[in-house]
Amino acid sequence: MPNTSSPEDLADKARFVFRGKVEKLNAATLPEVRDTSKTAVVRVEETIQSPKALSHYTGHSITVQFANPAEVKVGDEAVFFTDAWLFGNEGIAVRSLGHHPPGPQTAALRPSEEDPITHLEDRDTRKHYDGADMVVSGRIVSVRLFGDPKAGPSTREHDPDWREAVVDIDQVHKGDRGKKEIVVRFPASQDRMWHKAPKLEVGQSGYFLLHGGFNTTGTEARAVPVGATPDFYTVLHPEDFELGDHPGQIQKLLSRIPGTGTR
């Protein structure tokens, strides 16, 4: 069955993308893989995008598990879109999300100057940017408690301990360009569910990837019209905030998108 997803779509889903050649069918490089009915040994010829842990397998043979192993045969060359499955002393095994023969579409996935790790980081940041409702740069002028200040400490497990930061906007990179100030909610809790979320402080200047939310009444969420302005914005992901004097993935991305660049 041919792949129905494009190389670009598969690259957005996969963590480890490489060009490789099928060496053996119904085989594995790891003794931990006992059922080889859906696996093949594939030599990694070129790594296109990769997390750090998988970045050094170019030139090595690895195990690939396929949903439909009948789609490949010995000698096939393809670009494989995969996720990590097993790690062992003899190498790794990955699960295939799909593959495409080499061609113009797969060639377009290759970074011209970047290494595979940076290429994956850039793709992740772009997906995060695309999912944000607003992207702004500015300075935090105040931080306050959210909710009733007279209420005592919450006893709920994993309580986020919400705060609100007031941000004086310097530039809107995505979203309502008429805004000069915005209120951003963030969890101040160091609970394991929230400890990686940005902890905003007065005086910090930087870049914010903001995600809109809507207030609810009781236990029922109200109907929200398409395109409605969010009731509030949050930063929850570690990559939702980047200090202005520590240029990173957000500033790098904005410099590449016309009309959104840093100044």
Q: Could you please describe the fold and organization of this structure?
A:
The protein has 263 residues and is mainly beta. The chain has 2 domains: 7-114, OB fold (Dihydrolipoamide Acetyltransferase, E2P) (Beta Barrel), CATH 2.40.50.120; 132-149 and 156-254, OB fold (Dihydrolipoamide Acetyltransferase, E2P). It is built from 4 helices and 11 strands; from the N terminus they run αβββββααββββββα. It has helices spanning 7-13, 104-107, 116-131, 249-254, and strands at residues 16-25, 39-49, 61-65, 77-88, 91-100, 134-145, 162-174, 181-187, 205-213, 232-234, 241-243. The strands form 2 sheets. It has a 5-stranded mixed barrel with strand order 1-2-3-5-4. It has a 5-stranded mixed barrel with strand order 6-7-8-10-9. Strand 4 and strand 5 form a beta hairpin. The longest helix is centred in the middle third of the chain and has 16 residues, at 116-131. The termini are far apart. The model has no long low-confidence stretch (mean pLDDT 89).
CATH topology of the largest domain: OB fold (Dihydrolipoamide Acetyltransferase, E2P)
Strand order across the largest sheet: 1-2-3-5-4
Structural class: mainly beta
Shape designation: elongated
Provide the low-confidence segments as ranges: none
Measured between the Cα atoms of the first and last residue, the distance is 49 Å
The sequence of SSEs as H and E is: HEEEEEHHEEEEEEH
Helix content: 10-25%
State Rg: 23 Å
Average pLDDT value?
89
Tally of individual helices = 4
Largest sheet: 5 strands, mixed, barrel
Number of domains: 2
Number of strands: 11
Quickly name the level 1 CATH class of the largest domain.
Mainly Beta
For the record, the CATH architecture of the largest domain stands as Beta Barrel
What is the percentage of strand-forming residues? 35-45%
